[in-house]
Amino acid sequence: MPQKTGAVLFLAGLMTASSVAADDDTALARCVSIDDAEQRLACYDEIAGRETSADESATALAPISEDYGAEQLGQDNPDRKVEKPVLVKVTSCRRDDRRKYYFYLENGQVWRQHDDDRLRFKECNFNATIIRDGFGYKLQVEGQKRRTRVKRVQ
């Protein structure tokens, strides 16, 4: 008799877990179908039970400062806060002999392409966003989805 009770409890637990998993799949499918990146992230956070603060939900781009990326030049500033994505104006660019781009920004900074992504531009005069992640920085041209890893050189 105890074996039958254990089997019944096991099956009941399995059925409950299956319905929870099906609910999770439905919720994930709902999040996947959201086009806006911020709303999609909020949907995933809601499923995970993660609460976001007002600071995290505000994703306004900050203007680029002189010390943005300075640690890559050996000019680290220990007082620097966590860096938000910044909007930049690329005024010109050129390719070196290894087919890597150098991006010249409106404020005088120079960033070099650090990965092997193939980039296509009609003109080297565009707005872009530079985003810091755990491995360094990425540049995303306005209106494009692809990002390329960059490193500040000047």
Provide the fold topology.
Layout: H1 2-32, H2 37-48, H3 54-57, E1 62-63, E2 86-95, E3 101-105, E4 110-113, E5 126-133, E6 136-141, E7 147-152
Parallel strand pairs: 1-2
Antiparallel strand pairs: 2-3, 2-5, 3-4, 4-7, 5-6, 6-7
Helix pairs in contact: 1-2
Short description:
This protein is α+β, with helices and mostly antiparallel strands. It has three helices and seven strands, in the order H-H-H-E-E-E-E-E-E-E.
What separation lies between the terminal Cα atoms? 78 Å
Point out poorly predicted stretches: none
In total, the number of domains comes to 2
- Total strands: 7
Class of secondary structure makeup: alpha+beta
Helix-strand string: HHHEEEEEEE
Question: Roughly what fraction of the amino acids lie in strands?
Answer: 25-35%
Radius of gyration: 23 Å
Give the % helix: 25-40%
Mean pLDDT: 79
Describe the structure.
This protein has 154 residues and is of the alpha+beta class. Helices cover 31% and strands 27% of the residues. It contains 3 helices and 7 strands. The chain has helices at residues 2-32, 37-48, 54-57, and strands at residues 62-63, 86-95, 101-105, 110-113, 126-133, 136-141, 147-152. The chain has a 6-stranded antiparallel barrel with strand order 2-3-4-7-6-5. A hairpin with a 2-residue loop joins strand 5 and strand 6 (136-141). The longest helix has 31 residues, at 2-32. The radius of gyration is 23 Å and the shape is elongated.
